[in-house]
Amino acid sequence: MPRRGFTTIELLVTIAIISVLMALILPAVQQAREAARRTQCKNNLKQIALATIQFHDNIGSFPPGRIIPRPGDPQELSCGRDTPSWLVRILPYLEQGNFADDWDMRENFQDHPEEVRTRAISTYLCPSRRSASTAKIPTVTVEFTASCGCSGPQTFFSGATGDYGGNHGDLSPGAIGFTSDFYWGGNGNGVIISSRSFCVAGQPRDWIDKIRNRDITDGSSNTILAGEMHVNAQKINQAPDDGTIYSGWHFSFSTRIGGVHVPLAPNKDYVDTRLYSFGSWHPGVCQFGFADGSVHALSTSIDEEILGYLCVRNDNEVTSGF
């Protein structure tokens, strides 16, 4: 009887055809997966925006990005620098009430238990970048350089990382070592800004510099509330480039700015030495939640001036069609 089977040439041709088909299909599969991740990221920003608006409606103002005094402030205003960030304050509006109960907004971030500081929640994570099981940094001391007078060896305490930051405004108030610089309490011109606080027994109580809907004179549909924070792909989960989002120690851990001289990061490999920029790992776009609760994807090549109009709450520059 003749022997049945493939010849070597037939086998090689079959393998080659399968390889070509796989090469054609794989990019489509990857694009479909990225589209799904981008949709989940958009949903996260929608939840964050709506939770922040609910906070405003219940409390009477948007949450402060962090509590920090201005240099030279009197003692009754000079407290709260290391307390938790705004992303802790909105937890109850994200159906995270039990987690919110583990935090004390009057206490320093680092004084909370490590299991609280390092607990990541999926709403604060873009699936294109990381998962809850990997979203954390250890306690580490590094040489930190910044224009805020905090250069030198700095200890960054362990905590959960995340991908969304509040809109602190633009660079126009300055960042050159003056008390008017944008990162000090009350100087930001965005929506989620640094604020000073009234102090009782050395602990912060109510915050002073409150941003309300009426302060967004450009209109809530024309003003960014929060967006994706840029993190260089080589610095993921490495302080200070990727800080813990629950800490109010530095503005860039949970807020960012945008505008002239602060463009959107064009890609995940962009190097932003000042740690100011918004940016995503989605090709060509960065997603933002606006103060009216809507979510929009902006091109990473958006004009810096237009980006600034969207970040500043009261510059009388209303931008449409972005």
Automatic annotation (TrEMBL):
| Highest rank taxon of the organism | Bacteria
List, for all copies, the residue spans of the domain called DUF1559: 30-305
Name the PROSITE patterns for this protein.
Answer: PROKAR_NTER_METHYL (PS00409)
Annotated signal sequence is: none
Among Pfam families, the record links this protein to: N_methyl, SBP_bac_10
Q: Which NCBIfam families match?
A: IV_pilin_GFxxxE, pre_pil_HX9DG
PANTHER family to which the protein is assigned, alphabetical: GENERAL SECRETION PATHWAY PROTEIN G, TYPE II SECRETION SYSTEM PROTEIN H
Could you identify this protein by its name?
DUF1559 domain-containing protein
What is the source species? Gimesia aquarii
